[in-house]
Design brief:
Layout: H1 2-28, H2 30-40, H3 46-52, H4 57-60, H5 72-92, H6 100-106, H7 111-129, H8 141-168, H9 170-201, H10 220-227, E1 233-236, E2 245-248, H11 249-266, H12 271-282, H13 286-309, H14 317-337, H15 343-362, H16 365-371, H17 379-410, H18 412-423
Antiparallel strand pairs: 1-2
Helix pairs in contact: 1-7, 1-12, 1-14, 5-14, 5-17, 6-7, 7-11, 7-13, 7-14, 8-9, 8-11, 8-13, 9-15, 9-16, 10-12, 11-12, 12-13, 14-17, 15-17, 16-17
Length: 431
């Protein structure tokens, strides 16, 4: 259990570093900033946003085939969701993406649309500011090809399942997505809370989950997997192990299929599963895993959001733009704030943020279960429970966001002084 949690954290932190790189790349490039401004400019006009809220039913109403029920409040909420996710990613270094789909569903966006929009927002962010070329040295071509082939099948299967569930019964679709998030966030949140309490008791406790960490040797499962000779065999990590290691491309593709399937169901990049799959199941070094993980996130998010959701009307582009802007700003503020926030406190915030998402989806289950007639409960009661879950969720992450922003503002003089001190020795040196 411990190693699985550590691997999830390592994957999340690797993804967070990638998001910070993307944000830095976009904000430092005038052309990309201009493109972003042009794309976002129409949304800055309140009249445009509010006019969209009165679109005909077949375009933006509750009866639309793609459940794109639109209100200005949902758009402004998507910016707030992106900002909060960015703050969590930048400050904590992990976990920000896990709150996006639950938050959008709390705003009234149906689960399948929240999933498709989240994936598209990840892809849009990647193509605008990706630094994948810096990571290509870590990517093993054979592993990447086999993994992406499997991921393609997995994403396709996950997308088909999500769409069929929604077409069969939208309530069941929401129920399944929420239930999966309850299990996943519950595991991450409670284990993170346990990890924090353990760290508080022992000041010498190591900081688990570095993105380039992982076991020094192979797990028993990895040894067994590598011992099975099923063509084609892929040789990798020659620069780490004399003669390299070998694994069947079939197993790599199967891992890719599982990652792609879960990514398509949940609307995330899939990185939270790539790391444990590569390191603990296939026995790939964490150094190689990080580069391949970033490559698969771009492919999974792009292929999944476009081929499985966008073409069927399950991507809400307006909300994706709102989240994109909010997350880019949030990542910057969060990353800077880490310089003045103790590491142990950051652990606590991670646990609380994830548990808030867990409570949010857990409290939404009674309403769906009652509508499906699995339980008997008055509509007013289920609605009250769901509302309470939304209030708790947005209250906790809202307080967290305000705290980060205020901490950033209060420490501006200190941060500015540190920045000047760092830049001083390098004056006159070209970067």
């Amino acid at each position: 259990m411990r190693f699985f949690y550590d691997s999830l954290m390592a994957a999340s932190r690797a993804h967070a570093r990638w998001e910070i790189e993307i944000s830095n790349t976009i904000f430092r490039d005038r052309k990309k900033m201009l493109i972003l401004l042009v794309l976002f400019l129409p949304l800055l006009i309140p009249a445009v946003v509010h006019a969209a809220g009165t679109l005909p039913g077949f375009i933006g109403g509750k009866s639309a085939y793609g459940p794109s029920f639109y209100t200005p409040e949902i758009f402004y909420g998507s910016m707030a969701v992106g900002l909060i996710a960015g703050l969590i990613t930048g400050c904590i270094g992990a976990g920000g993406g896990f709150v996006i789909t639950p938050a959008l569903m709390s705003l009234g966006v149906k689960g399948i649309l929240a999933v498709g929009t989240d994936m598209f927002h990840i892809f849009a962010k990647a193509i605008m500011g990706t630094t994948i070329h810096k990571k290509l040295g870590n990517v093993h071509v054979g592993l990447a090809i086999a993994f992406l082939v499997g991921s393609g099948f997995g994403v396709t299967g996950g997308g088909i399942l999500n769409r069929e569930l929604f077409n069969y019964n939208p309530v069941l679709s929401n129920l399944v997505i929420s239930a999966i998030y309850v299990v996943m966030l519950g595991f991450l949140g409670f284990y993170a809370l346990y990890d924090y309490l353990k760290a508080v008791k022992s000041t010498s406790s190591p900081d688990h989950g570095d993105a380039h960490g992982g076991p020094s040797g192979l797990t028993n499962l990895a040894v067994k997997v590598q011992s099975i000779n099923i063509p084609p065999m892929i040789t990798f990590d020659e620069d780490i192990t004399p003669g390299g290691r070998k694994v069947s491309g079939v197993f790599v593709a199967i891992c890719g299929a599982v990652v792609g399937f879960m990514a398509a169901i949940l609307g995330v990049g899939g990185g939270f599963l790539t790391f444990p799959a590569f390191v603990y199941v296939l026995g790939v070094s964490s150094f190689t895993t990080v580069g391949t993980d970033i490559l698969q996130i771009i492919f999974t998010a792009g292929y999944g959001s476009i081929s499985q959701y966008a073409v069927y009307g399950y991507v809400f582009y307006t909300l994706a733009m709102g989240m994109l802007i909010g997350s880019l700003v949030g990542v910057q503020l969060g990353a800077i704030t880490t310089k003045v926030v103790p590491g142990v406190k950051i652990r606590a915030f991670y646990a609380v943020a994830i548990l808030a998402g867990f409570i949010n989806r857990l409290f939404s289950l009674p309403e769906s279960l009652a509508k499906m007639e699995y339980i008997k409960m008055a509509p007013s009661t289920t609605k009250a429970i769901e509302t309470a879950g939304s209030i708790i969720f947005f209250g906790i992450v809202g307080v967290f966001a305000v705290w980060i922003i205020l901490t950033f503002i209060r420490n501006l003089p200190k941060l500015r002084a540190e920045s000047q001190a760092t830049a001083a020795p390098g004056k006159g040196v070209s970067r």
